[in-house]
Amino acid sequence: MSDAYTTFIFIKDDSDFSLEAAAKKLGALTSVTIQNLRERGFTVCWENWYFEVGLADEPSVLEEHQEDASNSPNDPRMHEAASCRRRVEMWSPETDYDCDYLDEYLITLEVLTGFKGLLTRREMIGDWLIDGKWFDG
Question: What is the pTM of this model?
């Protein structure tokens, strides 16, 4: 899980996010089908590309977030994420060298982040999605 599309969506305790609701919203898009719906994830299938979406909610997740925050003393968003006990992980198993599927990524991300109480970070780049724009941590 290390491509440019790898994104972590930290879920605050007051969030209305659920995998079921996210899968339903994504499945309502004309060009998308949802496959492999399971307890902790699903596959978002576009015509020629797909993304995996998984929920991390093990007890170690909170510890990881707290450790990441301690390693990022100048990143206020990471410190906010340190209290999140769950996160959504989105990635593509394939590498899109020419960014041919950037639009599909952005649309998928827009739907996934359309819930309240979320903090979104692209892992490879380390930037945060704030009000629809990407900013460094």
Answer: 0.92
